[in-house]
Amino acid sequence: MWPTLASLYQRMAAKRMFSRWSHDYEQEVAENAYSAADEVARAAIPHLAASRMSNPLIADIGIGTGLLAQQIFDSMPCRIAGLDFSEDMMASCAGRGITELLIKCDVGTAPWPLEKNAYDMAVSAGLCEYLTPPMLRHFLNESHKVLKKGGAMIFTYLPLKQGDKAIKLWRGHSGTYLVCAVDPADMEDFLKVSGFSLLEHSAPFKGCVFHDGSSYDYRLIKALKN
Ligand SMILES: C[S@@+](CC[C@H](N)C(=O)[O-])C[C@H]1O[C@@H](n2cnc3c(N)ncnc32)[C@H](O)[C@@H]1O
């Protein structure tokens, strides 16, 4: 029962928070040394280059204002589809003119409105901490559904630290929402069950450092659809 309630709460709370945050999101994440998007780009771009695909089709999940998508777009000719549930975040992204599709979707609960078995790569930066466990499993299953066989999935998540809680209430100046962390061993199991082979599970890196000195210590996953 609680996972359903937590997911219902989170859909409302995170959407409201991003709607308030969207106008100064990029300035604030720059001040907080946000590097999750850069790290995903750093893993995604060489993978795409090595595969020598022409004009690959890439899905950016939780695309936000397009910080990650822009880096991939700048690196090679490609087609990018973005999903996000915040119209305000997507409005900034639309202004970049880099996406072929930009669709409003709750990626943790709704079927993704993307063609099945069509995408060469799915990327996601700074999203998974907003997904409760059932939403995360949905995210992995839907990624599997839209990727081609052998397609890569690259994303960041917050690893659960020993003695810490998997779901915490966060009170920020833009609103209150749940921050979700995942046990790294569970993450590897979820990937396997969802039909992925793990290629890389990075060491923790400081992906965001807040004014009080606390940080988001992300890990990065790179996996291939079986
Ligand atoms: C921290 S931002 C990251 C944006 C972008 N990927 C980046 O690295 O700058 C998280 C994004 O995920 C979106 N998001 C969070 N939960 C979501 C959900 N359940 N469905 C769709 N989008 C979601 C938010 O609206 C926001 O744009």
Describe this structure in words.
The protein is α/β, with parallel strands linked by helices and 226 residues long. The chain has one domain (2-225): Rossmann fold. It has 7 helices and 10 strands. The strands form 2 sheets. Strands 1, 2, 3, 4, 5, 8, 9 and 10 form an 8-stranded mixed sheet that branches. A two-stranded antiparallel sheet has the order 6-7. A hairpin with a 2-residue loop joins strand 6 (167-172) and strand 7. The longest helix has 20 residues, at 2-21.
SSE diagram, text form:
Elements: H1 2-21, H2 25-31, H3 36-51, E1 57-61, H4 67-75, E2 79-84, H5 87-94, E3 101-104, E4 119-124, H6 133-146, E5 147-157, E6 167-172, E7 175-180, H7 184-193, E8 196-201, E9 205-209, E10 215-225
Parallel strand pairs: 1-2, 1-4, 2-3, 4-5
Antiparallel strand pairs: 5-10, 6-7, 8-10, 9-10
Helix pairs in contact: 3-4
The structure holds S-adenosylmethionine.
Residues 14, 18, 36-37, 62-64, 67-68, 84-86, 89, 106-108, 125-127, 130 line the site of S-adenosylmethionine (SAM).
Under CATH at level 1, the class stands as Alpha Beta
- Compute the number of strand runs: 10
Count of discrete domains: 1
Indicate the structural class: alpha/beta
Shape verdict: globular
Helix count, per DSSP?
A: 7
The largest sheet is: 8 strands, mixed
Amino- and carboxy-terminal Cα gap = 32 Å
CATH architecture: 3-Layer(aba) Sandwich
State the fourth-level CATH superfamily: Vaccinia Virus protein VP39
Low-confidence runs (pLDDT<50, min 5 residues)? none
Give the helix proportion (percent range): 25-40%
Secondary-structure element order, N to C: HHHEHEHEEHEEEHEEE
